[in-house]
Automatic annotation (TrEMBL):
Region Disordered, residue ranges: 1-20
Record's keyword terms, sorted: Glycosidase, Hydrolase
Family annotation (PANTHER family): BETA-HEXOSAMINIDASE, BETA-HEXOSAMINIDASE-RELATED
Organism the protein comes from: Olsenella porci
Biased composition annotated in UniProt, kind: Basic and acidic residues: 7-17
This protein's name: beta-N-acetylhexosaminidase
InterPro entries for the chain: GH (IPR017853), Glyco_hydro_3_N (IPR001764), Glyco_hydro_3_N_sf (IPR036962), NagZ_Beta-hexosaminidase (IPR050226)
Domain Glycoside hydrolase family 3 N-terminal: 82-412
Length: 419
């Protein structure tokens, strides 16, 4: 997955297409809720974040002299979308998967045509898409303008920017931004404020570029011999990781960007790598409650807008080898019902080896949605997965009301953070 929307042979000096009709001059300001609220103090931040995630103690449907409430705006926005548009909002592919272009570094006519066909809810960008600040700002602004033109909603523009070994901007030669380093080193300081400051700093360079979602922080607790998460996690115990994750969430939100705790219910103690193979934990639910779930619970308390579910199997919890991302017992019964999370639940990449062979591309998204997932990250075939969900609604396998539930959560986040 690599950097330019090359819908025509015409190329600019950055390797992307000439962004004709891209709407760059119409770039919408990214007024991210929690970042704006920072100006008014901590109470305002907490109120805004709670409202967006649906955890406010005061109903957002209360009447307001200033206009429609957030609940009313969400309902109106969802009602304005066709079924095809609603289903598309549940997908977050790479720009390459959306356009069919080998390397996307701009959002021009090719992106506009692709978006008209499948107006996805978000795009996930990687280092190959990001050349320098000017190019990145123009690309993201253009993509957002296209989304607003097509469906009247901002686009979730996401990046994996954890720091250390997972960094697309920090340390990238095209950007004058240092890599903040591994979160393990942050955890080793024993100071949660350090996690806050580092993540607020990451938000501070992502937001001006146009990103409104960072797929971080990592909320896993490292144990066992696997080194997959060794440097990405804040540490090896719940006592260390839990407060670090909580303050990381506050740092991102205080810095004006949405964030995503991952990889629920915790892959830090699992052997192997879900990128290439099936992974499994032998932990029971009671054991998880006393360890792995604690950082996620803290993230929820701090107003996390999104949680990513990993692909680990939890047979001691679910009774079978179904990956967590496709399991109703994990997604709905545990994360949604027991932990009370009402923000966006997104899968880990559905191209990973741990899930890629379990279902066809047309069935995979349906299975995840049946489990309770709201957004599908990087399905193996965007077109097939998208059509598969539409067909499932047509046949009654999925109810449109179930689609509406997820779309309402997605729209709520967009209107609360990125309008």
């Amino acid at each position: 997955m690599a950097g330019g929307d090359r819908g025509t042979p015409r190329r600019d000096t950055r390797g992307g297409d000439v962004a004709r009709g891209s709407g760059v001059s119409r770039r919408a300001a990214v007024l991210l809720g929690c970042g704006v609220a920072t100006l008014a103090g901590g109470a305002a931040i907490a109120s805004r974040c709670a409202r967006v995630t649906g955890s406010s103690t005061r109903s957002s449907s209360d009447s307001s002299a200033s206009g429609p409430t957030l609940d009313q705006r969400v309902s109106q926005a969802v009602a304005s979308l066709t079924l095809e548009q609603k289903v598309a909002q549940m997908f977050m592919p790479t720009p390459e998967a959306l356009t069919g272009v080998g390397q996307v570094t701009a959002a021009g006519e090719t992106t506009r045509k692709a978006f008209a066909s499948v107006p996805v809810g978000g795009l996930c960008y990687f280092a190959q898409n990001l050349i320098d600040p000017s190019q990145t700002k123009q690309m993201l602004a253009s993509a957002d303008a296209i989304s607003r033109d097509e469906v009247g909603l901002p686009l979730l523009m996401a990046v994996d920017e954890e720091g250390g070994t997972v960094s697309r901007i920090g340390g990238n030669d095209g950007f004058d931004v240092d890599n903040v380093g591994d979160m393990r080193d942050v955890g080793d300081t024993g100071d949660p404020q350090r996690a806050h400051d580092v993540c607020e700093g990451i938000a501070g360079y992502l937001s001006p570029l146009g990103f409104n979602l960072d797929l971080a922080p990592d909320a896993d607790i490292v144990s066992g011999t696997s080194q997959t998460m060794a440097r990405r996690s804040f540490g090896t115990s719940a006592d260390v990781v839990t407060p670090m994750v909580g303050q990381a969430v506050r740092g991102f939100l205080d810095g004006g960007i949405m964030c995503c705790a991952k990889h629920f219910p915790g892959i830090g103690g699992v052997e192997g790598d879900s990128e290439t193979e099936a992974i499994q934990t032998k932990r029971t639910l009671d054991q998880m409650r006393g360890k792995e779930l604690l950082p996620f619970e803290e993230a929820i308390r701090q107003g996390i807008p999104m949680v990513m579910v990993g692909h680990l199997s939890c047979p001691a919890v679910t009774g079978d080898s179904t990956p967590a991302s496709l399991s109703k017992a994990i997604v709905t019964e545990l994360l949604r019902d027991e932990l009370g999370f009402d923000g966006i639940i997104i899968t880990d990449s559905l191209q990973m080896g741990a899930v890629s062979g379990l279902h066809s591309a047309s069935e995979l998204g349906v299975t995840a949605i049946q489990a309770g997932v709201d957004m599908l990250l990087m399905t193996p075939s965007l077109g097939e997965s998208y059509q598969g969900v539409l067909d499932a609604v047509s046949t009654g396998t999925l109810d449109e009301a179930r689609i509406d539930e997820s779309v309402a959560r997605i729209v709520r986040a967009k209107l609360g953070y990125a309008s």
